[in-house]
């Protein structure tokens, strides 16, 4: 476990998992550099201000860039990469979600909510179903994710269209709310 006061975190806020990481980092006294990049962001695309006055340990979350990480090491920083995705030419896949890795790093015990967020990110609906979450609980998590992604309005429009245009199957119309 690291002393969180010695850590600078560089992390985008581009989904529910990253939002929880940023929240925990702030609550635990880290120097937080919230990236404005969406999915597909890299360390190399960060503005120069993100690298000013960094603490000794730099934790980089889901901003793949081997050259940028090496640049930080050459500048004297200890670099810790948290990720669970593969990228062209860069394998970062891990079974543990980034949220799980982050909590392990700082010695934070994950509560049920954080486990749900981690499973939502790593294993999506099938994983949440395996956890035993109700349909309503899964829908609520997905709604939180859409709010962060800024897709709430487009999803609402698609949902309204689907409700109007759904078809009957063998004379039965599925009446359960469509809200995942």
Offer a few descriptive terms.
180 residues; alpha/beta; four-stranded parallel sheet; two-stranded antiparallel ribbon; globular
Task: Give your account of this protein's structure.
There is one protein chain. The protein has 180 residues and is of the alpha/beta class. It has helices at 16-27, 66-74, 98-106, 112-131, 135-149, 152-165; strands spanning 7-12, 31-35, 57-61, 78-82, 86-87, 90-91. A 4-stranded parallel sheet has the order 2-1-3-4, sandwiched between helices. Strands 5-6 form a two-stranded antiparallel sheet. Helix 2 (66-74) links the parallel strand 3 and strand 4 (78-82). The protein is globular, with a radius of gyration of 19 Å. The model has no long low-confidence stretch (mean pLDDT 88).
Summarize the entry for a quick read.
By secondary structure, this protein is α/β, with parallel strands linked by helices. The chain has helices spanning 16-27, 66-74, 98-106, 112-131, 135-149, 152-165; strands at 7-12, 31-35, 57-61, 78-82, 86-87, 90-91.
Give a topology summary.
Layout: E1 7-12, H1 16-27, E2 31-35, E3 57-61, H2 66-74, E4 78-82, E5 86-87, E6 90-91, H3 98-106, H4 112-131, H5 135-149, H6 152-165
Parallel strand pairs: 1-2, 1-3, 3-4
Antiparallel strand pairs: 5-6
Helix pairs in contact: 1-3, 4-5
Low-confidence parts lasting 5 or more residues at pLDDT below 50?
none
- Helix-and-strand structural type: alpha/beta
Cα radius of gyration in angstroms: 19 Å
Q: How would you state the average pLDDT, rounded?
A: 88
What share of residues are in beta strands?
A: 5-15%
Question: How are the strands of the biggest sheet laid out side by side?
Answer: 2-1-3-4
Number of strands: 6
Tell me about the biggest sheet?
4 strands, parallel
N- to C-terminal distance: 37 Å
Succession of helices and strands: EHEEHEEEHHHH
The amount of helix comes to 40-55%
Contiguous helical run count? 6
What is the 3D form?
Answer: globular
